[in-house]
Amino acid sequence: MPSRRTATRNNTKLSNNQLVSAMIKQGLISDPLLSPTPSQPPSSSRPAVSLSPPPSFTAASPNSARSISSPTLFEMMSEEQARESKHSVQARLKLRDRVFKVLADAPFRNHDDDNLGSGDVRLTVTAIDGFRVSMEVHRRVLTGRSRFFAEKLRKNGAQMVSVEILECDDVEVYVEAVVLMYCEDVKKKLMGEEVSKVLELLKVCSAISFDDGILACLEYLEAVPWSEDEEEKVVSHLGDLQLHESLPNVLQRVVAEPSTSSRADDIFLKLLTGVLQAKDDKARREMKTLISRLLKEESSDHRSFNNSTDISRDTLHHLCHRCLSSLILCLSEATCVDENRQDRGSLMSEIAREADNMQWVVDILVDRKMGSEFVKLWADQKELAVLHSKIPTMYRHEISRITAQLCVEIGRGHILVPKETRYSLLSTWLEALYEDFGWMRRASRSVDKKLVEDGLSRTILTLPLRQQQAILLNWFDRFLNKGDDCPNLQKAFEVWWRRSFIKQYVVDSHLQITVYDYSN
After folding, report:
1. Closest Cα to residue 56, out of 88, 24, 94?
2. Residues 337 and 465 grouped into a single domain
3. pLDDT category, 373, cuts 50, 70, 90?
4. 100: how many CB neighbours lie within 10 A of its CB?
5. CA 137, CA 116: separation in Å to the nearest integer?
6. Mean pLDDT confidence for 450-455
7. How confident is the model over 42-78, as pLDDT tens digits?
8. What's the start-to-end Cα distance of the chain, in Å?
9. In Å, what is the CA distance from 334 to each residue of 284, 323, 343, 352, 392?
10. What does the pLDDT average to over 276-303?
11. How far is Cα 235 from Cα 242, in angstroms, rounded to an integer?
């Protein structure tokens, strides 16, 4: 029997909860947590500024007992609603404190000021959530500073006028804008404010046609530094507002003039040439890293927008030919170097420097999807390859990193060239890469052995089967003699083996492919 009575009480409570929930939804009763507080009627003895109090919030008693172990859906919704209401109350209390602070020294609250006298306009600003601020301000100030209020108050000659601005996004900013109307030097009043606050004030000043406020905000924005986040906000806000002639002055720091954009390619050439010719190695490496990052960002933006400041193909090809000429000159000098000469170390550094410059330019070309023409140019460097074979490996191994870089990008599909060009590239430089691989791996920590081997394997496997066979059989003999000093192309060798002896594809005259599988 006790259990039946408990179940009856629970069912009764659930029914009551469901009934209350349905009545709230139908509007028959109000939810005390969401209902606004009714405003008090005006009184002649109340102060010039009145703030409507926030809705009351009553916390649930911690000692209230639950008749069931788990809360109902209605109770869970009520608790969530209570938490949201508490947060809303706290936010409103903070807003009220900020508004009181703004109004603390407002000129229209100084009743001892004989120049102003008593206010003759009751201005009420109401937020979307119902929070409201009332101020007794002066008609001649509003109409003299704001074209919006001049139009609204022009036909009304009553001694006391009430004006209400409804559904304001930010009551605090509207109140601050009204206070600014009483300031002789608005720009001075803005000093020390955050950029975001001035942008909000600019929006309100524009909405009420407060021209002196608009000008002061624009002059402030033109004078102060912006962070990157603030820069985006400034450009976005000013783009949304239809303002007067001062706007271009504010955006001059971010908007390039047409003459500057047309000379962008010359600027790029000057910067890149300066990096390639830099005398301080540390500064050269830092500037390479910086410019590479900036160019990658610019390239990413160019794919989304029609950016006219893109670096040209001719500029990059000019730099490529300059680096090639420098490399040929350095290698020509290196072929005449006596092993006992004291300056061979500096010559070795010069070759490494020029090879590093070439790799940097190639990286820019690949990022700009212009690498295919350089592959052909590099494959045609027969003279350079001959000079390369005549000097010690310790001097030349950095040059082979260029070949490795191209093979990696071809293997990734970032460079698309015909099979003739791919074979010409390997015919000219593969032997040199084999010879220098051991030095490359030991002398430079930045060389990723697995990455180079994978890129080289993928490049070889894009060639016709007969060319794959010639290259991989040559590699087979070399690997047996050199071991780790030779790239490990076993995966490419396995693929070639299966293509040649296990799965053979035969194409007949009607372009039908027949597969012969000899694995069984």
Report:
1. 88
2. yes
3. very high
4. 13
5. 9
6. 96
7. 433 333 333 333 333 333 344 444 444 567 766 677 7
8. 79
9. 24, 16, 11, 12, 9
10. 85
11. 13
Report the run of H or E that residue 423 belongs to, with start and end: helix 419-443
Asked if the model's pLDDT at residue 292 lies above 70, the reply is yes
CA dihedral (384, 389, 394, 397) in degrees, to 10, reads 50
* Per-residue 3-state assignment (H helix, E strand, C coil) for 452-482: HHHHHHHHHHCCCHHHHHHHHHHHHHHHHHH
Total domains, the chain: 3
Residues 411, 413, 418, 419, Cα dihedral to 10°: 30
Q: Are residues 333 and 477 in the same domain?
A: yes
Is residue 395 situated within a structural domain? Answer: yes
Residues 372-397 as b or e (16 or more Cβ within 10 Å = b) = bbbbeebbebeebbebbeebebebbb
Q: At which residue do the structure tokens 């490529």 appear?
A: 320
Same domain, yes or no: 199 and 346: no
223-271 pLDDT, tens per residue? 999 998 999 999 888 888 877 566 678 888 887 665 555 577 888 899 9
Q: How far apart are CA 48 and CA 73, in angstroms?
A: 47
Across-strand partners of 96?
none
pLDDT in tens, 78-107: 777 766 666 677 777 888 888 888 888 788
Structural domain contains residue 336: yes
- Provide φ and ψ at 168, rounded to 5°: -75, 140
Rounded distance between C-alpha atoms, residue 432 and residue 389, angstroms? 7
Question: Do residues 169 and 196 make contact, with C-beta atoms less than 8 angstroms apart?
Answer: no
d(C-alpha 407, C-alpha 135), whole Å: 74
Closest alpha carbon to 334 in 358, 315, 354, 308 = 354
Average pLDDT, the chain: 80
What's the Rg (C-alpha) of the chain?
39
- 247 lies in the same domain as 348: no
Residue in the structure block whose two tokens are 């691989």: 437
Does residue 56 form part of some domain? Answer: no
Residue 166 CB neighbour total at 10 angstroms:
10
Q: Would you say residue 197 has pLDDT above 70? A: yes
Residues in the chain, overall count:
520
User: What is the token pair recorded at 41?
Assistant: 């009627």
- Is 78 part of a structural domain of the chain? no
Residue numbers of the domain that contains 217: 103-251
* Residues facing residue 507 across a β-bridge: 513
Check whether residue 129 and residue 216 sit in a common domain. yes
Mark whether 316 and 193 lie in a shared domain: no
**Residues 326 and 244 both lie in one domain:** no
> CA 351 to CA 358: how far, in whole Å?
11
Residues 359 and 480 both lie in one domain: yes
Instruction: Kindly report the CATH number assigned to the domain that includes residue 135.
Output: 3.30.710.10
H or E stretch at 168: strand 161-168
Contact (Cβ atoms closer than 8 angstroms) between residue 385 and residue 432:
yes
Q: Whole-model pTM above 0.70?
A: no
